[in-house]
Design goal:
The complex is a heterodimer of chains A (214) and B (427). In chain A, helix 1 (2-16) runs antiparallel to helix 2, helix 3 (56-79) crosses helix 4 (81-87) and helix 7 (136-143) crosses helix 8 (147-171). Chain A has ten helices and no strands. Chain A is mainly α and 214 residues long. With 427 residues, chain B is an alpha+beta fold. Chain B has helices at 12-20, 30-37, 43-55, 57-68, 82-120, 122-129, 131-143, 145-153, 156-170, 174-189, 207-216, 291-295, 301-317, and strands spanning 195-196, 232-233, 249-252, 269-274, 277-282, 322-324, 330-334, 337-341, 349-355, 358-363, 367-371, 379-382, 394-399, 405-409, 414-417, 425-426. In chain B, helix 9 packs antiparallel against helix 10 (174-189) and helix 10 crosses helix 11 (207-216). The chains are: A mainly alpha (214), B alpha+beta (427). The interface between A and B is large, with 76 and 53 residues.
């Protein structure tokens, strides 16, 4: 274990993003790896859960990430409203009412059906990008492809989803225009508007009279 | 909010649907998530894990966090030591220098070797390579025979003047002077003699070399072919008296050819002039190229070296070269060294003349030192008439033979003898 100690601490710092939490995380995992339980009754190392499917280093990083998510991210969620907003709870759809057949229900049904038809990895990419807000580079690194490949893939998936949902809505008796209007409703986070750049541009714009004082 | 870089947004309904599909069920073990990130799962396992990741925000977070902590193994840094470059550069430089040196050596030595081979291949190669030049020599000998006879018939005074001019011209090349005068004397005194032993004129031990010099200047000497049926100069080893192997080279006389080529033989030179055909034998010990032939080559250090070697060979042979040193001593060249003669005489010499084994030297005063054996024995002559004697200093001494000698004094007077110094006339 001493061999991986330095790598463990380095990975912990990267996951936590700061030194104190990283050290705490690494120390905690290090103790668990030696099997020191809080109760002190039995000593069971966490290494027993390692079955050798992946590399030990990767397993250690994954365990560290799990520990970080369990320990800190959940705590943040409980205390931070922003995290809840970011998680999209405010956009959570209300439970579907049985027998309702309004336009909203119809589009949700069509969307769910279309999503379920997508391959798991496509849904994973969409969720990682649109829900978890991971960057194209992060997704590309995990999937071991080029960043542009992920970009094209997402573009293709979104356009495909639109077309498929629209077809389903039209097939369900909805007019094409109405279906398009429903699909136009885009989450504000996906509008692609760079507010910061827009504000800077407004500030930098010359007066409407062309900057002339006369 | 960070800039997403995507212009196309996802429909709101899709986002809500993905939230609805989010699960909080049992999560895959860290071992499986690690194996997924490392592409170590089977297809079935990967489908299950990816399906869970598509709906589980936490597991996606774990996977991305673990992946972000991954540190790519650093590329091995290849450290190029300076010494490694020097280790290659130094032998390469040495090899290059050696190659350049070898190339320069080849460029320098090969022409020299070729030249030396040409100079030392001897009579046989001379017959093939220098045959035309030899024929030229022979033609020159034949062409200049008549003037030589005329020169032999002129009065002693006229001969003195002629030989004085010859002397001045010959001072540029001492070896040539010696040879010319020797042959001139031979042609004059014994034009009908078939064979003359040059050893009689050469000092003991140097006869062979002297004969070589004689043969060398055969080309420029006006031979007596017009009146004499033949002239043969035979040298050979003086000590043994037996001529060495001779190889005649015959060829038609080219009367118009005036080019000069010298063949120097240390052993034997035979010149035979007979009604337009001349045979010349040279021994392979040394061959001398004339200045004309040497000038045919472009001037180069290599050529300069060849000339130096040639002159050195001449100096080794021309033992009868005399001079007056800067401090007034009489010196002669013996084996590449100037050696003082008449060291017992406390006199500052001013002029010297030599012709064969005869040497005349003098300075201030009427005393003229003469040697008939190449400087071994000396006798003193008084340059005087019945009523006058030379009072100034001898400025120049001219000798056409052992009998006819002229002395020019610094006061402008000219003293001439026709009997070897027994009587003098002042002019």
């Amino acid at each position: 274990m001493a061999r991986y100690r330095e790598q463990l601490f380095t990975a912990a710092y990267k996951i936590a993003g700061e030194e104190s939490r990283g050290r705490e995380l690494a120390d905690s995992l290090y103790a668990e790896l030696y099997g020191i339980s809080a109760e002190g009754r039995e000593r069971k190392s966490k290494l027993l859960y390692y079955h050798g499917r992946g590399s030990l280093e990767g397993w250690l990083r994954t365990v560290l990430a799990q520990e970080y998510v369990d320990r800190f991210r959940k705590t943040k969620r409980e205390t931070s409203l922003d995290e809840q907003v970011e998680a999209g709870h405010q956009f959570a759809a209300p439970a579907a009412t049985n027998g309702s057949s309004g336009p909203t229900e119809r589009i949700d049904t069509a969307t769910t059906e279309v999503l379920n038809q997508l391959p798991a990895e496509d849904r994973f990419v969409l969720a990682s990008y649109f829900i978890d807000q991971h960057s194209l580079a992060e997704i590309a690194t995990l999937l071991r492809v080029h960043e542009s490949t992920i970009s094209r893939r997402i573009q293709r998936l979104v356009s495909g989803l639109r077309g498929s949902i629209e077809k389903k809505l039209v097939a369900g008796g909805m007019s094409a225009r109405q279906a398009q209007e429903l699909l136009e409703s885009v989450d504000v986070r996906d509008m692609g508007v760079n507010i910061h750049a827009a504000l800077q541009q407004e500030t930098g714009n010359p007066p409407f009279y062309g900057g002339k004082d006369q | 909010m960070k800039h997403r870089g995507m212009s196309t947004g996802i429909p709101k309904s899709v986002r809500e649907a993905m939230y609805r599909q989010a699960v909080n069920g049992p999560h895959p073990a860290a071992d499986l998530l690690t194996a997924y990130a490392e592409r170590a799962l089977t297809e079935q396992e990967e489908a299950l894990v990816v399906g869970h990741l598509a709906t589980c925000t936490e597991c996606r977070g774990v996977v991305f966090l673990a992946n972000s902590a991954y540190e790519a193994p650093a590329k091995p840094v290849v450290v190029y030591e300076r010494r490694s470059m020097l280790r290659w550069a130094m032998p390469a430089t040495a090899l290059l220098a050696f190659a350049i040196g070898f190339f320069v050596l080849l460029r320098t030595e090969n022409p020299n070797a070729t030249r030396t081979a040409q100079l030392t291949k001897g009579t046989e190669q001379t017959a093939t390579v220098k045959e035309r030049d030899t024929v030229k020599i022979e033609s020159n000998v034949a062409d200049k025979a008549a003037p030589a006879i005329a020169s032999a018939q002129i009065a002693p005074a006229a001969k003195l003047e002629t030989h004085a001019k010859t002397k001045l011209a010959h001072e540029k090349s001492l070896a040539r002077t010696s040879t010319d005068k020797t042959i001139a004397r031979l042609a004059q005194d014994q034009p009908q003699v078939a064979a003359v032993p040059p050893a009689a004129l050469a000092p003991p031990g140097y006869a062979g070399t002297f004969n070589g010099m004689t043969g060398a200047k055969t080309n420029s000497y006006p031979a007596t072919g017009a009146t004499a049926s033949s002239m043969q100069i035979t040298g050979g080893d003086v000590n043994s008296g037996a001529p060495r192997a001779q190889r005649p080279i015959s060829g038609p006389v080219q009367a118009a050819n005036q080019s000069a080529t010298q063949n120097v033989s240390a052993d034997t030179v035979e010149v035979q002039t007979s009604a337009g055909e001349i045979s010349t034998q040279t021994a392979p010990s040394l061959q001398k190229q004339s200045d004309a032939e040497l000038q045919a080559f472009a001037p180069s250090p290599m050529m300069f070296d060849a000339r130096q070697r040639q002159r050195s060979a001449i100096s080794r042979m021309a033992i009868t070269v005399w001079r007056i040193s800067s401090d007034g001593h009489l010196e002669r060249m013996m084996q590449d060294q100037w050696k003082r003669a008449l060291g017992s005489v406390q006199k500052s010499f001013r002029a010297v003349a030599y012709l064969g084994n005869h040497v005349w030297a003098g300075g201030a005063g009427p005393e003229l030192y003469h040697s008939a054996d190449g400087g071994e024995n000396w006798n003193t002559l008084k340059v005087k008439t019945e009523d006058a004697e030379l009072k100034g200093a001898m400025q120049s001494i001219k000798a056409t033979d052992d009998k006819h000698v002229a002395i020019i004094a610094d006061d402008g007077s000219v003293w001439v003898t026709a009997n070897g110094g027994q009587t003098w006339t002042k002019q």
